[in-house]
Specification:
Elements: H1 2-13, H2 17-20, H3 22-36, H4 41-49, H5 52-62, H6 73-90, E1 96-100, H7 107-118, E2 126-132, H8 135-143, E3 145-146, H9 157-162, E4 163-165, E5 171-173, H10 175-178, E6 181-185, E7 200-204, H11 214-226, E8 228-235, H12 241-245, E9 249-251, E10 259-262, H13 309-324, H14 328-342, H15 346-358, H16 362-375, H17 380-392, H18 396-407
Length: about 425
């Protein structure tokens, strides 16, 4: 029955079950069954099939947003200068058009608005659309009230400028920022989503493609390319850079921005210089079973309650022993149990990738490695294994970029 639910989620939002792990979907189903007071899975499936409202509730239980203001700050620094350049090119003939999708609870599109306001743009000089499949998170975005988890790091001066701390708790975003963003429900798999809409100068679609299977990734990427104005910029997630570079997009060469344009629209003089030379081609992964990393990695970030570091190390040591003993089914089960109990973690996805590699499931392995890199952009082992796969597929440029990132944490996706 879970297989039927997975297919429904794939048809509705394009979700590839392997990208999040079956345990995450099972946990969401149990959550919804509990909310409805149901105990029979077949009964829940019947309810689900006849209730678009319940389908939406399940989608929202599966898609757990992980977002905060000015996530990937280098992208917003780049946006400020790129927007000025674009505005100059247009001679002020029209407002800049930007979109954030999925926008979740609003932190990304509101960060875009604050970036442009701080860069000297007047509100009428730009327009920001923000789309998400979840009505619940869109309602949170409309309220504009955020807790401390939405503010991370030390660079929080923007909070003093654009938010009012509430006596009842939380921070309320200024109306002058909220009014810059048009929030609406939208699904990228809807063929009529952009019907009649002009293209965008800047598209933010970060960490969405990693949840899709390969055909859906390509379908969505082509849609985004069609919606990009000539000379426009697409911002994607760190784990999605190789997909973009293989499909007609070129990194702008700005470190850690994950900003791309259509390759034909970037002047050759602006591309980063790469000296020619012979590179040794690393061998593809052929080991019959996965090998543990030199040091087991503790969980560094999860969406649920974090386990103590010592416990995390014990878990991955156990997984390593099981995998190296050929007990890969048990190793997979332990990794999926960790996902179910603690939420997504780079270590769990990395080990699931290795286990898939050992079983010859290359596509699934790549999906897990990308997920690990999404949660931990400088995860050395995941970067290295994914690079080997890209190299085996003939994507030498993408592979070398990942190898450089694995060897040097300061190297960005365009270097």
């Amino acid at each position: 029955m879970i297989e039927h639910i997975e297919r429904l989620l794939k048809s509705r939002i394009g979700l590839d079950a392997e990208s999040v792990g079956r345990s995450v979907i099972e946990r969401a189903v149990r959550q919804r069954m509990g909310a409805l007071g149901q105990h029979d899975l077949e009964g829940y499936w019947t309810t689900l099939g006849g209730s678009p409202r319940e389908q939406q509730a399940l989608v929202e239980a599966v898609v757990v947003p992980e977002t905060w203001f000015f996530r990937y700050p280098e992208s917003f620094n780049a946006l400020a200068s790129l927007a000025q350049e674009r505005h100059t090119q247009l001679h002020g003939a029209r407002p800049l058009r930007l979109i954030s999708l999925p926008c979740s609870s609003g932190e990304e599109p509101y960060s875009i608005a604050m970036t442009l306001l701080d860069a000297g743009f007047a509100a009428e000089q730009f327009r920001i659309d923000a789309l998400d499949v979840s009505d619940r998170v869109l309602e949170q975005a409309r309220q504009g009230l955020y807790g401390r988890n939405s503010f991370r790091g030390d660079a929080l001066a923007f909070r003093e400028r654009f938010f009012d701390e509430q006596a009842t708790g939380g921070f309320l975003l200024a109306e002058r920022v909220r009014s810059c963003v048009r929030l609406r429900t939208g699904n990228l798999l809807d063929p009529g989503l952009f019907a009649g809409e002009p293209g965008y100068d800047f598209i933010f679609c970060r960490n969405l493609l990693i949840y899709f299977d390969r055909p859906t990734q390509l379908r969505v990427l082509e849609l985004l390319k069609r919606q990009l104005q000539e000379g426009g910029t697409l911002f994607i997630g760190p784990a999605e850079a190789s997909l973009a570079s293989q499909n007609g997009l070129q990194a702008l060469g700005r470190q850690q921005t994950f900003a791309f344009r259509m390759a034909s629209t970037i002047p050759a003089a602006s591309l980063p210089f790469r000296a020619p030379g012979n590179r040794t081609r690393p061998a593809a992964i052929t080991a019959p079973r996965p090998s543990p990393p030199s040091r087991p990695r503790p969980v560094t970030r999860t969406l649920g309650a974090a386990a103590p570091a010592a416990v995390a190390v014990d878990i991955w040591t156990e997984v390593a022993h099981l995998a190296n003993a050929g007990r890969t089914d048990e190793a997979r089960q332990r990794s999926e149990q960790h996902l179910q109990q603690h939420g997504p973690s780079a270590a769990a996805y990395y080990w699931l990738g290795l286990i898939c590699d050992s079983a010859g499931q290359g596509d699934q392995a790549c999906a897990y490695y990308r997920k690990a890199i999404y949660l931990e952009p400088q995860h050395r082992e995941a970067l290295t294994h994914l690079a080997a796969h890209l190299q085996a597929q003939g994507d030498e440029a993408g592979a070398q970029r990942l190898y450089r990132r694995a060897q040097n944490p300061e190297v960005g996706e365009g270097d």
